[in-house]
Structure formats: C-alpha cells, structure tokens
Amino acid sequence: MTDQSGNHHVDEGRKILSVEDLHVAYGAVKALRGISFSVKAGEIVTLIGANGAGKSTTMNCIMGLVKCQAGKIVFLDEDIANMHAFQIVRKGLSLSPEGRRLFLNLSVRENLEIGGLITLDKGKKQELLDEIFQLFPRVKERLTQIAGTLSGGEQQMVAISRAIMQNPDLLLLDEPSLGLAPNLVQEIFEKVQILNSEGKTILMVEQNAFQALRISHRAYCLEHGELNIKGTGAELLANPKIKEAYLGG
C-alpha cells in the first residue's frame, strides 16, 4: 500500500507474504516440493539450508524469475505467483540477488538510479538515498566509482542499496554474506538489523546459519526442496539437528 508521496504503509505484525504449497521443477528435477511459510510485517525471516536445497529457487520464484508449477505466493492479499518480475517489483518486493549482479561497467550512482527507476517521486528518491548513505557511508564515498572496481564487501553494500531504492514493503536478501571476509560478514548482518529496526521487513537466504539465526525473528530449514524444521531464530540455534548440520556441532 502506497500513499501519494510514495511511502509504503503496512501494519506491524500483519502477514504480508504467504507461500503456500509451492512446487518448482527444472525439467525432471524437483527443486521445491510443496513448501509453505510466511513473513509478517516487521520481521526478519531466514531460510537456511545446504547448497542445492532450493533456497535461491524460492527467492527467484517469489520474484517471478522462476516459474512455479503449483502453489500460491500471496503478497499483501494478492496471489503474485507467475506474475512478471517487473510487476512484482511494482507491488512492493525487491531482491538483492545472490552474487550481487551489479552492472559492473556502470558507476555506483548509475546502479542506484536503476534501482530507483520505479520510485517516481523525486523527494522520495532523495529520502531513500539519504537513508542509504547513512547506513552505508562507503556507498556515498564510492558514488562516481565504476561498480566493477569495488571490493566484494562494497559491491554487496551497493546491491542491497539498489534494492532499497525500490522502496519495498518486503526486502529479499539472497546470500548477503557470501564470499565476504569475516569482519565484513559481521558488518553486513549489523546493517540488516539496523534496516529492520528502521521498519524494513526482510526475508533472507543465508548459508552462514549462525549469524543469520542470531538476528532472525523466525527461520525455516530447507532440505531437498522441503521445509522440515521451523521456529524462532533462537529455537533453531538450539536445535541439535541444526547444530550438527549447519553450526559445526
């Protein structure tokens, strides 16, 4: 829901995303086998799981980048399953993709401007930029730099910033800490917490289970295309099966 100025209003605690019995296959390979989960406004919800478990497929399916065979993806009371990605972004979802996927030959500013194309209100765009510069001072410092010359950590900050420029009701982060040095991993998770404290609802896929579960309100464990363990972040951190599989015992 958006008002005249481009500001989004979603009541805290309201279920804004509901994935119901979602099935996805790549040819004969079943990537998702009837998964169901939800995200409420104001939450950080994380999907953890091994490589190939279906985490990125889930994110890409929500964003309309992968077609689902069956099931519903209900966002703000509307089934968006198999809509085009550009329509889904306009509904209020944005994705910071795995591997960052920046336009490497364009400047940081140009990458952010591309993210802000759907935000028509100039005042709102400036407000979002100010928010980004406060969260990521280095992004402001690197505005004129070509994105391909940035460090991995800086590229990740720009990728998240580009998604924020879409002014989403729900921000999807796919492997935000992937390939980063340990000190930067810590910083990225701190920034995710700050974003959440400022009102952003976040659905995150993350292989660094310990760090992700530590900051998550709720979490789900995906194995072989099925969700078999769910609970609060703290419950999954304490779960013996999760400890053994993802937290090094």
Features of the shown structure:
single chain; 249 residues; alpha/beta; Rossmann fold; six-stranded mixed beta sheet; four-stranded antiparallel beta sheet; disordered N terminus
How is this structure best described in words?
Helix 3 (108-115) runs parallel beside helix 6 (152-164). This protein has 249 residues and is α/β, with parallel strands linked by helices. Strand 1 and strand 2 (29-40) form a beta hairpin. The protein has a domain at 13-92 and 205-249: Rossmann fold. The longest helix is centred in the C-terminal third of the chain and has 16 residues, at 182-197. The chain has helices at residues 55-62, 85-91, 108-115, 122-135, 137-141, 152-164, 182-197, 209-215, 233-238, 240-246, and strands at residues 15-26, 29-40, 44-48, 70-75, 78-79, 93-96, 170-174, 201-205, 218-223, 226-232. 42% of the residues are buried. The protein is 37% helix and 26% strand. It is built from 10 helices and 10 strands. The chain is globular, with a radius of gyration of 17 Å. The termini are far apart. Residues 1-7 have low confidence and may be disordered. Strands 6-7-8-3-9-10 form a 6-stranded mixed sheet, with helices on both faces.
* Content of β-strand: 25-35%
Q: Going by CATH, what is the homologous superfamily of one domain? A: P-loop containing nucleotide triphosphate hydrolases
User: How would a textbook summarize the main sheet?
Assistant: 6 strands, mixed
Q: And the CATH topology of one domain?
A: Rossmann fold
**Discrete helix count:** 10
Helix content: 25-40%
N→C terminal distance: 44 Å
Structural shape: globular
